[in-house]
UniProtKB/TrEMBL annotation:
Record Gene3D superfamilies: 3.30.70.330
InterPro entries registered for this protein in UniProt: Nucleotide-bd_a/b_plait_sf (IPR012677), RBD_domain_sf (IPR035979), RRM_dom (IPR000504)
Top-level taxon of origin: Eukaryota
Pfam families: RRM_1
Coiled coil: none
Name of the protein: RRM domain-containing protein
Species of provenance: Cyprinus carpio (Common carp)
Lineage: Eukaryota, Metazoa, Chordata, Craniata, Vertebrata
Domain RRM per the UniProt entry, residue ranges: 5-77
GO terms assigned for molecular function: RNA binding
Keywords annotated in UniProt: RNA-binding
């Protein structure tokens, strides 16, 4: 967790765009956001360096974006062998909400203590089963 440069942002409006998120998270330091990937009502914001990540975490957590107060946390890295770190437990038998997000190096833990990971795998009934 000491090297994480990715934020997990939840409680987004479905209408919120990646461009809006890039703009909002770049306000403190323009050009600090490397990339943004939004999936339904949550997103991952990648930064070039950790210092900017932590600054954005503090300034953006609880901020209202497009009419919705957002919750911002550090994304939880997945260990090298593909298992979740910190003893996090999977929800839905290891399944995650479907999306076209190709970075399988991060997962997040929801407020309800569910861990959802992003990765590749078979898609069934709107869920992606993680490999």
């Amino acid at each position: 967790m000491q090297r994480v440069r990715v934020l997990y942002v939840r409680n987004l409006m479905l209408s919120t765009t990646e461009e809006t998120l890039r703009s909002e998270f770049s306000r403190m330091k323009p050009g600090s956001v490397e990339r943004v990937k939004k999936l339904t009502d949550y997103a991952f914001i990648h930064f070039y360096n950790r210092e900017d990540t932590l600054t954005a975490l503090e300034s953006m957590n609880g901020k209202v974006i497009d009419g919705s107060p957002v919750e911002v946390t550090l994304a939880k890295p997945v260990s090298k062998d593909g298992t979740k770190r910190s003893g996090l437990r999977n929800s839905y038998g290891g399944a995650a909400a479907a999306g076209n997000y190709s970075d399988s190096n991060f997962s997040f833990q929801s407020r309800d203590d569910m861990t959802i990971g992003l990765g590749t795998g078979a898609v069934s009934d709107g869920l992606t089963v993680l490999n």
